[in-house]
Design brief:
The chain has about 170 residues and is mostly helical. About 80% of the residues lie in helices and about 0% in strands.
Length: about 170
């Protein structure tokens, strides 16, 4: 019984803080790495060969995980003005349809990016400076949009249970 309580608490923490925690870590990592690079280049007179590459890859992962965080917050890109073109009674359905379309898009990106990852695994390409396997970099869209898909499913369930939830977003 106690074990189930711990696992539910862990799942709740992951659900609440997964994307934001990793995003804060990646942003901090980028800041520290680039700060060290600036120090090394302008104070010590010698630059690091790997720092810009690592910062670039951290930024790529940050972008894709942030898409998932935006979906979790129900703040993905949408055109609010277009929503006002529909009658009030239709708007909830239009928002739900937009969420379903975004889910389909996220799943499509996962599917296509998986093929890219498989190809990178087959080729064995590594990054120039750090010699890191490039499949790790190419996995960012797959992981980010997989998480986005999970968040969109949560959003769709929320919208079905709360059909007037789109009104709260309109007020913000």
């Amino acid at each position: 019984m106690k074990r189930e309580g711990i696992s539910m608490k862990t799942l709740r923490l992951i659900d609440e803080y997964f994307e934001i925690s990793i995003s804060v870590f990646l942003m901090s990592l980028m800041t520290v790495i680039l700060g060290i690079q600036v120090f090394m280049r302008y104070v010590m007179g010698a630059s690091l060969s790997w720092s810009e590459e690592l910062a670039r890859y951290a930024f790529i992962w940050l972008i894709y995980l942030s898409i998932s965080y935006g979906a979790k917050q129900m703040r993905h890109i949408k055109i609010d003005a277009a929503l006002k073109l529909f009658p009030d009674s239709w708007r909830g359905y239009v928002v739900l349809l937009a969420d379903v379309i975004f889910l389909v898009f996220a799943l499509y990106v996962v599917w296509t990016s998986w093929a890219v990852i498989e190809r990178q695994l087959m080729l064995g390409q590594t990054s120039p400076a750090m010699r890191m396997p490039m499949w790790i970099v190419y996995a960012a869209p797959c992981v980010g949009f997989f998480m986005t898909g999970i968040r969109q499913i949560q959003t769709i369930i929320f919208r079905i249970k709360n059909p007037n939830s789109w009104r709260q977003e309109e007020e913000i």
